[in-house]
Amino acid sequence: MDSTVIYLFLGVILLFNIVFMVVFMKNKAKKPVAAQPVGQPRFEQQEAAADEEAKTQALGSNQPQNQPVQEPVEEKTEVLSIANLTPQEKAMLGKEADETMILGAAEPTPVVHQKVLRSVIYQSNGTEEVYKWDEAEVLVIGRDPQQCDLTITTDKFIGRTHALVYQKHSRYYLVDLDSKNGTYIDNLALKGQQEISLDEAFKLGQTEIVVK
Protein backbone atom coordinates (compact mmCIF):
# COMPACT_ATOMS: atom_id res chain seq x y z
CA MET A 1 0.00 0.00 0.00
CA ASP A 2 2.79 2.41 0.85
CA SER A 3 4.70 1.69 -2.38
CA THR A 4 1.57 2.32 -4.44
CA VAL A 5 1.19 5.81 -2.92
CA ILE A 6 4.84 6.63 -3.65
CA TYR A 7 4.56 5.57 -7.29
CA LEU A 8 1.38 7.57 -7.67
CA PHE A 9 3.02 10.66 -6.18
CA LEU A 10 6.01 10.41 -8.53
CA GLY A 11 3.70 10.02 -11.50
CA VAL A 12 1.82 13.19 -10.57
CA ILE A 13 5.11 15.14 -10.32
CA LEU A 14 6.28 13.87 -13.74
CA LEU A 15 2.94 14.74 -15.33
CA PHE A 16 3.10 18.21 -13.80
CA ASN A 17 6.57 18.78 -15.28
CA ILE A 18 5.42 17.67 -18.72
CA VAL A 19 2.42 20.01 -18.65
CA PHE A 20 4.64 22.91 -17.52
CA MET A 21 7.09 22.35 -20.38
CA VAL A 22 4.29 22.19 -22.97
CA VAL A 23 2.76 25.47 -21.74
CA PHE A 24 6.16 27.18 -21.68
CA MET A 25 6.95 26.17 -25.27
CA LYS A 26 3.53 27.35 -26.51
CA ASN A 27 3.99 30.79 -24.89
CA LYS A 28 7.42 31.11 -26.45
CA ALA A 29 6.05 30.22 -29.89
CA LYS A 30 3.30 32.87 -29.60
CA LYS A 31 5.82 35.69 -28.95
CA PRO A 32 5.07 38.50 -31.53
CA VAL A 33 7.65 39.00 -34.29
CA ALA A 34 8.20 42.43 -35.81
CA ALA A 35 6.61 42.39 -39.26
CA GLN A 36 8.49 43.69 -42.25
CA PRO A 37 6.79 46.26 -44.45
CA VAL A 38 5.12 44.57 -47.40
CA GLY A 39 6.59 45.31 -50.79
CA GLN A 40 9.77 46.95 -49.48
CA PRO A 41 12.96 45.20 -50.66
CA ARG A 42 15.39 43.95 -48.05
CA PHE A 43 18.28 46.13 -49.25
CA GLU A 44 16.09 49.28 -48.98
CA GLN A 45 15.22 48.29 -45.41
CA GLN A 46 18.91 47.89 -44.65
CA GLU A 47 19.71 51.30 -46.15
CA ALA A 48 16.89 52.93 -44.15
CA ALA A 49 18.16 51.29 -40.97
CA ALA A 50 21.73 52.46 -41.70
CA ASP A 51 20.52 56.06 -42.29
CA GLU A 52 18.54 56.02 -39.05
CA GLU A 53 21.53 54.71 -37.14
CA ALA A 54 23.76 57.42 -38.64
CA LYS A 55 21.26 60.12 -37.59
CA THR A 56 21.11 58.67 -34.08
CA GLN A 57 24.88 58.66 -33.77
CA ALA A 58 25.11 62.24 -35.05
CA LEU A 59 22.52 63.48 -32.57
CA GLY A 60 23.99 61.55 -29.67
CA SER A 61 27.63 62.40 -30.28
CA ASN A 62 29.32 64.68 -27.81
CA GLN A 63 30.78 67.59 -29.68
CA PRO A 64 32.81 70.22 -27.84
CA GLN A 65 30.92 73.45 -27.32
CA ASN A 66 32.23 76.86 -28.41
CA GLN A 67 35.02 75.26 -30.42
CA PRO A 68 36.70 77.90 -32.60
CA VAL A 69 36.08 77.43 -36.28
CA GLN A 70 39.28 76.63 -38.13
CA GLU A 71 39.64 78.79 -41.20
CA PRO A 72 40.65 76.95 -44.38
CA VAL A 73 44.31 77.26 -45.18
CA GLU A 74 44.84 78.82 -48.56
CA GLU A 75 47.12 76.70 -50.69
CA LYS A 76 49.70 78.56 -52.68
CA THR A 77 49.75 77.64 -56.31
CA GLU A 78 53.23 77.45 -57.77
CA VAL A 79 53.41 79.45 -60.97
CA LEU A 80 55.47 77.77 -63.67
CA SER A 81 57.89 80.32 -65.00
CA ILE A 82 59.95 79.84 -68.11
CA ALA A 83 62.79 81.60 -66.33
CA ASN A 84 62.91 78.74 -63.81
CA LEU A 85 63.46 76.12 -66.48
CA THR A 86 66.84 74.45 -66.80
CA PRO A 87 68.78 74.71 -70.06
CA GLN A 88 67.88 71.10 -70.80
CA GLU A 89 64.18 71.85 -70.37
CA LYS A 90 64.47 74.90 -72.58
CA ALA A 91 66.14 72.79 -75.25
CA MET A 92 63.24 70.35 -75.11
CA LEU A 93 60.87 73.19 -75.94
CA GLY A 94 62.67 73.53 -79.25
CA LYS A 95 63.68 77.17 -78.73
CA GLU A 96 65.13 79.51 -76.13
CA ALA A 97 62.28 80.35 -73.75
CA ASP A 98 63.70 83.72 -72.70
CA GLU A 99 63.81 85.06 -76.23
CA THR A 100 60.87 86.46 -78.17
CA MET A 101 60.83 86.11 -81.91
CA ILE A 102 60.49 89.44 -83.63
CA LEU A 103 57.74 89.74 -86.20
CA GLY A 104 59.11 90.05 -89.70
CA ALA A 105 62.53 88.70 -88.75
CA ALA A 106 64.14 86.63 -91.46
CA GLU A 107 63.91 82.89 -90.81
CA PRO A 108 66.98 80.73 -91.38
CA THR A 109 67.26 79.51 -94.93
CA PRO A 110 66.88 75.73 -95.21
CA VAL A 111 69.90 73.88 -96.52
CA VAL A 112 69.30 72.87 -100.12
CA HIS A 113 70.99 69.78 -101.47
CA GLN A 114 73.53 70.77 -104.10
CA LYS A 115 73.13 68.33 -106.95
CA VAL A 116 76.43 66.94 -108.21
CA LEU A 117 76.26 65.35 -111.64
CA ARG A 118 78.89 62.85 -112.74
CA SER A 119 79.48 61.73 -116.31
CA VAL A 120 79.28 57.98 -116.90
CA ILE A 121 81.00 57.26 -120.21
CA TYR A 122 80.78 54.00 -122.17
CA GLN A 123 80.95 52.72 -125.77
CA SER A 124 77.81 51.57 -127.62
CA ASN A 125 78.16 50.25 -131.19
CA GLY A 126 81.45 52.10 -131.55
CA THR A 127 79.91 55.38 -130.37
CA GLU A 128 80.81 57.06 -127.09
CA GLU A 129 77.76 57.59 -124.89
CA VAL A 130 77.51 59.86 -121.84
CA TYR A 131 75.01 59.39 -119.02
CA LYS A 132 74.59 62.14 -116.38
CA TRP A 133 74.39 60.65 -112.91
CA ASP A 134 73.35 62.47 -109.71
CA GLU A 135 75.81 61.04 -107.21
CA ALA A 136 73.26 61.44 -104.40
CA GLU A 137 71.31 58.58 -106.01
CA VAL A 138 72.21 54.92 -106.56
CA LEU A 139 73.06 54.17 -110.20
CA VAL A 140 71.82 50.74 -111.38
CA ILE A 141 73.34 49.50 -114.66
CA GLY A 142 71.90 46.73 -116.85
CA ARG A 143 69.71 45.85 -119.87
CA ASP A 144 66.26 46.12 -118.21
CA PRO A 145 64.88 49.66 -118.70
CA GLN A 146 62.23 49.05 -116.04
CA GLN A 147 64.77 48.34 -113.27
CA CYS A 148 67.91 50.19 -114.36
CA ASP A 149 68.94 53.84 -114.48
CA LEU A 150 71.64 53.35 -117.11
CA THR A 151 70.36 50.92 -119.75
CA ILE A 152 72.82 49.32 -122.18
CA THR A 153 70.94 47.08 -124.62
CA THR A 154 73.67 46.74 -127.29
CA ASP A 155 75.78 44.36 -125.13
CA LYS A 156 74.04 40.99 -124.70
CA PHE A 157 76.65 39.89 -122.16
CA ILE A 158 75.35 42.48 -119.68
CA GLY A 159 72.73 41.16 -117.27
CA ARG A 160 69.25 42.59 -116.82
CA THR A 161 70.41 44.19 -113.54
CA HIS A 162 74.17 43.74 -113.70
CA ALA A 163 75.83 46.18 -111.27
CA LEU A 164 75.38 49.42 -109.38
CA VAL A 165 77.47 52.42 -108.35
CA TYR A 166 76.87 54.60 -105.30
CA GLN A 167 78.61 57.40 -103.43
CA LYS A 168 79.05 57.63 -99.68
CA HIS A 169 81.07 60.26 -97.82
CA SER A 170 82.71 61.37 -101.11
CA ARG A 171 83.88 57.83 -101.84
CA TYR A 172 82.56 55.72 -104.71
CA TYR A 173 81.71 52.03 -104.65
CA LEU A 174 80.99 49.47 -107.37
CA VAL A 175 78.74 46.48 -106.54
CA ASP A 176 78.19 43.38 -108.69
CA LEU A 177 74.55 42.17 -108.50
CA ASP A 178 75.33 38.45 -108.91
CA SER A 179 75.61 38.80 -112.68
CA LYS A 180 76.28 35.72 -114.82
CA ASN A 181 79.27 37.20 -116.69
CA GLY A 182 80.65 39.18 -113.76
CA THR A 183 82.08 42.67 -113.26
CA TYR A 184 85.80 43.32 -113.77
CA ILE A 185 88.28 45.95 -112.60
CA ASP A 186 91.73 45.70 -114.20
CA ASN A 187 90.73 42.26 -115.53
CA LEU A 188 90.01 41.04 -111.98
CA ALA A 189 86.53 39.73 -111.19
CA LEU A 190 84.71 41.80 -108.60
CA LYS A 191 83.23 39.92 -105.67
CA GLY A 192 80.64 41.80 -103.64
CA GLN A 193 81.61 45.47 -103.69
CA GLN A 194 84.80 47.45 -104.09
CA GLU A 195 85.75 51.10 -103.80
CA ILE A 196 86.65 52.77 -107.10
CA SER A 197 88.12 56.11 -108.04
CA LEU A 198 86.85 58.62 -110.53
CA ASP A 199 88.31 57.98 -114.02
CA GLU A 200 88.91 54.33 -113.05
CA ALA A 201 87.51 52.00 -115.73
CA PHE A 202 85.50 48.87 -115.00
CA LYS A 203 83.98 46.34 -117.36
CA LEU A 204 80.47 44.88 -117.61
CA GLY A 205 80.17 42.11 -120.23
CA GLN A 206 82.18 43.55 -123.16
CA THR A 207 81.47 47.21 -122.29
CA GLU A 208 84.03 49.38 -120.54
CA ILE A 209 82.60 52.15 -118.30
CA VAL A 210 84.27 55.13 -116.66
CA VAL A 211 82.81 57.55 -114.06
CA LYS A 212 84.18 61.11 -114.28
Automatic annotation (TrEMBL):
Region (Disordered): 44-76
Compositional bias of kind Low complexity: 62-71
Pfam short name (any one): FHA
InterPro entries given in the database record: FHA_dom, SMAD_FHA_dom_sf
Stretches assigned to the FHA domain: 139-190
Keyword match Transmembrane: yes
Stated name of the protein: FHA domain-containing protein
Annotated source species: Metabacillus malikii
